[in-house]
Amino acid sequence: EAGSDDLAHDARTLLEKNGAPPNRTAILSRARYLYQQREWAPAKDLLVELGEQDGFMFAECVYQLRDYARAKQLFQSLVDRNEDLDKALSRLANIEARLGDYQAAIAHNRELAAKKLSPRRQKAALNNIAFLHKDSFQFDQAAEVLHELLHMRLGRRERINTTRELAWVSYRAGKYQTAIALLDELIKTKGTGRDLPQFLFWKGQAERKLGASTSEKKQQQEAEAAAQQAFEDAWDADQWGYYGSCIRRPNNTVWP
Hints:
This protein is an all-alpha fold. 73% of the residues lie in helices and 0% in strands.
């Protein structure tokens, strides 16, 4: 049995040490083993030795070694040949995001979602699109994608998390009434129990923002009363936790 020190050795040396003649099948098997062990550099070297430089395994090694320009070319070649399409598109989207081209990353994720290769990958692609829009401060676009996700079959935890994200981007977009309605929906679910103070606190923040956005005195008073009630409920649920500490600050100040 080869020890851990052998992982970085050339397969040819390892096989000769064990008395076996080096052959393509044995070297490829060793490359796959190293790949599974996340030993990217030696796995890549063996694939080069074998001339196996056009498959997903080689492209993944290059990606993990952070040669993104070359990895981008390799994954695009896989997409063009319709090989390992879902994984290659996902990696192309990751590379574009890492290189700062969010629009290209969104386009790759949208292509991946449209192919409907599997519900898991489709949902992951839509979540990535929503995140990229949110990270670009495109909150309305993020909300559209999150609405799309909510129309899919989601587990309870997935639905809570997606609704939470939708409430957040609605808040950031200045759509406080929408955020409040979504947070009320979440408050009814109570999440895991630990989520409840968060939902209540941000409902209070949204109510306060809503009051500040109107010139109607009555609406201001109603919004402030609703905010105070939400803060009191959050305090009861989390007096000595994070949201309790936020409430103890002057005017409940917290970013944003």
